[in-house]
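Q: I'm building a small set of examples for a reading group on sequence design. Run inverse folding on the following structure and report the sequence directly after it, with nothing in between.
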């Protein structure tokens, strides 16, 4: 599916952001550990959330969908037998469920699809063997052949590689009957907010752990409680509409928790530095275009903000800098190069020097045919930039947004009376 996005002189209105897929996938992982019932309200329908839900289904968990919630009935993990699990294209699910499913004594084959099978996960080769797991990979990539049980021990991990597999290790330790008083030490931690998010979801299930001085101290074994959990709105998805309003009008965006542990709530700092008018309430944000100051922002701990921030920087009155480029090379695409190439087609002036991305200001975007690179955030960034274009732009493979934000184009249309996009 290709989509044409048309320019807009002004956007205005009120939208509600869908559930956080980061929170949803973590809640589903914890629901698998529970020996009993979990009720999840506001579970989203992105491809990544559906992938995680399907992993639970493949493990034998019973899933019942009701009008307002989804109910998970699980028997736990340790008795699972010879599993074949497909993570589809979900990077978080693959990295989180690999250690978690290794707590079973039986064999697990973990596969993926599309771009996921090209993404490097070499850190598992040594890590899993250190934890008593018989493990093999395809030269550091999927598929994985796993034979547990994982046995927790005092462990030091390199946090510069990914926070996602660290979440998997945390959840695996909590699920393991062999856990006692182990300590997990994280060197060179990146994406700390995502680790904090993992711990906050775990707390909903009755296990309180803290990250202090880059260490998590366990005192197990634990037993997760049956619970009801409400999934908050997604700040990653909201970031694109927050930027849209900052460069092109005003919006009220609902379902955004002001006290969220999501890393991408940090978008508000960049928007304030840019000069947007912001009124943040407990569960919503009103944002209006005002000033357009150049800004400097460190996205090391929130790399998913690079695409919307690159768009924001295009319309600042001067050069802006986003730090943390090294976090972009192993996403759905090489996101640093994809942003440089595709937004560059539209006139964006992006240079990369070491770990910094520098973006010069432009007056408007040029029409272009955009290759999404199979990356949902590249497609969304191009669509937002197109709102300030001289003519429509066309995005190839535009449906890739379904990975995280299936309603993205419909919400774009909602904030503008005339046609904002067309499918062809």
């Amino acid at each position: 599916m290709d989509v044409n996005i048309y320019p807009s002189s002004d956007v205005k209105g009120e939208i509600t952001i869908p559930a956080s897929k980061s929170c949803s996938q973590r809640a589903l992982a914890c629901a698998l550990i529970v020996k009993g019932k979990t009720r999840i309200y506001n579970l989203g329908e992105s491809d990544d959330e559906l992938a995680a839900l399907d992993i639970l289904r493949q493990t034998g968990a019973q899933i019942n969908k009701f009008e307002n919630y989804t109910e998970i009935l699980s028997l736990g993990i340790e008795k699972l037998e010879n599993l074949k699990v497909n993570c589809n294209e979900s990077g978080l699910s693959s990295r989180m469920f690999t250690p978690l499913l290794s707590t079973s004594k039986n064999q697990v084959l973990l596969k993926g699809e599309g771009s996921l099978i090209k993404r490097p996960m070499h850190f598992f080769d040594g890590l899993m063997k250190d934890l008593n797991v018989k493990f093999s990979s395809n030269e550091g990539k999927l598929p994985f052949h796993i034979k547990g049980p994982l046995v927790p021990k005092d462990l030091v991990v390199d946090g510069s590689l990914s926070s996602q597999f660290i979440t998997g290790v945390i959840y695996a330790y909590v699920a393991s009957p062999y856990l006692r008083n182990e300590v997990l030490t994280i060197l060179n931690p990146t994406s700390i907010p995502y680790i904090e998010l993992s711990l906050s979801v775990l707390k909903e299930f009755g296990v309180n752990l803290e990250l202090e001085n880059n260490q998590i101290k366990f005192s197990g074994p634990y037993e997760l409680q049956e619970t009801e959990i409400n999934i908050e709105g997604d700040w990653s998805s909201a970031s694109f509409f927050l930027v849209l309003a900052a460069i092109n009008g005003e919006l009220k965006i609902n379902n955004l928790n002001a006290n969220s542990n999501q890393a991408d709530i940090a978008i508000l700092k960049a928007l304030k530095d840019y000069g947007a008018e912001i009124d943040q309430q407990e569960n919503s944000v009103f944002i209006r275009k005002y000033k357009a100051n150049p800004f400097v922002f460190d996205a090391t701990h929130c790399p998913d903000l690079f695409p919307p921030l690159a768009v924001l920087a295009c319309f600042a009155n001067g050069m802006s800098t986003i730090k943390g480029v090294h976090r972009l090379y192993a996403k759905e695409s090489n996101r640093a190069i994809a942003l440089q190439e595709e937004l560059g087609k539209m006139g964006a002036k992006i240079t990369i020097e070491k770990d910094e991305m520098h973006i010069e200001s432009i007056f408007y975007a040029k029409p272009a045919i955009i290759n999404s690179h199979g990356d949902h955030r590249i497609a969304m960034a191009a669509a937002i930039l197109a709102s300030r274009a001289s003519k429509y732009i066309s995005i190839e493979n535009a449906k890739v947004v379904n990975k995280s934000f299936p309603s993205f184009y419909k919400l774009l249309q909602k904030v503008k009376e005339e046609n904002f996009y067309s499918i062809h």
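The CA atoms of residues 410 and 418 lie 13 Å apart.
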